[in-house]
Amino acid sequence: MKIITILACILSFSTFVACNKVEGQGGTSTIKGKVLIVDLNGSGDTVQPPYYALDQDVYILYGDADETYDDDFATSYDGSYEFNNLTKGQYTVFAYSKCETCGGGVEVIKKTVEISSNKQVVEVVDLVIID
Q1: Is position 5 within any domain?
Q2: From 42, 69, 83, 109, which residue has the greatest number of CB atoms within 10 Å?
Q3: Spatial distance between the Cα atoms of 62 and 68, rounded to a whole number of angstroms
Q4: Mean per-residue pLDDT for 103-131?
Q5: Is the pTM of this model over 0.85?
Q6: Distance (Å, rounded) from C-alpha 112 to C-alpha 120?
Q7: How many Cα atoms occupy the beta-carbon half-sphere of 109 within 13 Å?
Q8: 41-61 per-position pLDDT tens digit
Q9: Is position 90 within any domain?
Q10: What range defines the domain where residue 123 resides?
């Protein structure tokens, strides 16, 4: 009888822990957007009209951790990207932009969004990067 009680407690605890979902894969929501490129010359003048980025890497962070990215996506021919099957929570999407005055010559352009319900599609404002 004591063993049954112990097993019941372990099962109850496991069920409780499993119900605490964190940001990431396993949900039904989507985050999508586009990457827009502004092409500048050395003087900072626009060389040509802005255009949507083909094959530009976009990264996503799950939650509020500012660590290694959790997933990435190369934009399509129209500059679009999409992260699917996400759970409720906070996410940050980002891309790298050229930056002549930044250390290393690049800077992070990022947007933070919130998924608040299942089957939600969150549209991110364009990530505008410099090339």
Answers
A1: no
A2: 83
A3: 10
A4: 96
A5: no
A6: 16
A7: 22
A8: 877 777 899 999 999 999 999
A9: yes
A10: 22-130
